[in-house]
Amino acid sequence: MPLVLVAEDHDDTRALYRYVLEARHYRVVDAKDGEEAVSLAEHLHPNLILMDTSLPLIDGLMATDRIRKLLNEYIPIIFVSGNAHPRLKREALNAGGDEYLVKPVSLEELEAAVERLLTINGVSRSRNARAV
Predict the structure, then answer these.
(1) How distant is the alpha carbon of residue 37 from its chain centre?
(2) Which of 3, 24, 26, 94 has the fewest CB atoms inside 10 Å of its own CB, making it the most exposed?
(3) Single pTM value for the model
């Protein structure tokens, strides 16, 4: 089962994403701040990352930039943000994000984006990912 890293500082949002993803047979690991997200990405090599733009310690943009520089492999990153400003969306995509969703995001939209990027990256739910 593919491994998804959820980088989100709000407990309730993180729990919701975990519930939705696990119900769709994804394994989930989560980070409460940008530093933890970078560390988990470096050590676990998830198949996809859901990244909030505003995280403690280092924000999602900087965390994404660090992940892109640290890892030799491509990991799709979906930004999920409460900020709909086009400038932030542009900055997130320039930092290495693949998609930018605005909260409140519909669960259907989130699921579709995850599945689409995993499929494009050649990962399916039946393919084994690294163990947590």
Answers:
(1) 9
(2) 94
(3) 0.91
